[in-house]
Amino acid sequence: MAVWAIGDLQGCYDTTRRLLDRIRFDPAVDRLWFCGDLVNRGGQSLETLRLVHSLRANATVVLGNHDLSLLAIGERREEEKRKVNPDLQRVVLADDADELLGWLRGQDLVHVDRELGWLMVHAGLAPKWTTHVARKHAAEVEAVLRGPDYAKLLRNMYGDGPSWNPRLQGNDRLRSIINICTRMRYCSPRGRISFEDKGAPGTQPPGLYPWFSVPGRAERDLRVVCGHWSALGLHISGGVHAIDTGAVWGGKLTALRLDGEDLQVVQVPGRDTPASPPRARTPRQDAPRREPGRQGGRRRRGHGNRGATGGSGGGGQDAPPAPQPGS
Ligand SMILES: [Mn+2]
After folding, report:
1. Phi/psi zone of residue 41: left (φ > 0), alpha (ψ -120 to 50 degrees), beta?
2. Domains along the chain?
């Protein structure tokens, strides 16, 4: 019996099958943890989603930003569905879309297994969140996703703010939790997320830290496994295990064994033809490119891939199919 965590699949079905072969996955005894972003950009999102769904009795999944975007698209009118990229379009227009998306919507944002000693989240945790607090706030979002108002949440989840504050309420609160769990890479010590900095540590502006090394962060009593940050590569330190190794960008797909004493890592080459990098984010119209005379241009522009490592890196946009550029 083995428990394996697997990094962001992003619609790379063939790669996923190769990795399951390499770890000799046996559905009779083994378990799989998927770190989220099962879909988008890999070209085989429908097959990938069907595969994970078929393994659901053996699989634990946390939702990533691309998974949430897919759920949001699934709620749109058919003509709107036809406007999204072909990879996601095939999912939302498939005969079994209701079953696949209904199942996906029931997955967690944060998974905790105290017996095994691990917490899984797609992106990150707010600086002050212990594992108990993270699980509690994730449950707030999960309850809405599973309840009658889920479509409203999916319509209103896009946007970069507000920063987390325990006094937030309503949709702002849910959006803030979603952004932390599914989109965070760098943040300030007070938990303000930088959505535009996606490169490897060292490329970020002063005052920002990888979420797992923010000064003053909470002590965490479980090891953490996460994905989302392909430019980071396989990163294991301080109890955090980031395993998105950019399979969709021509990197690798990573499995990390969670049970047992030693941290076994198995990787297979990613997609043969790397996905094209996403288009650069267009600067916001309400934020002029240059503001003469103001504070020496401290504000950084949102040139999508800037800093996202050339070649096989490319963290990608956070929620590309969203109608709003700020997502
Ligand atoms: Mn992601």
Report:
1. left
2. 3-297 (3.60.21.10)
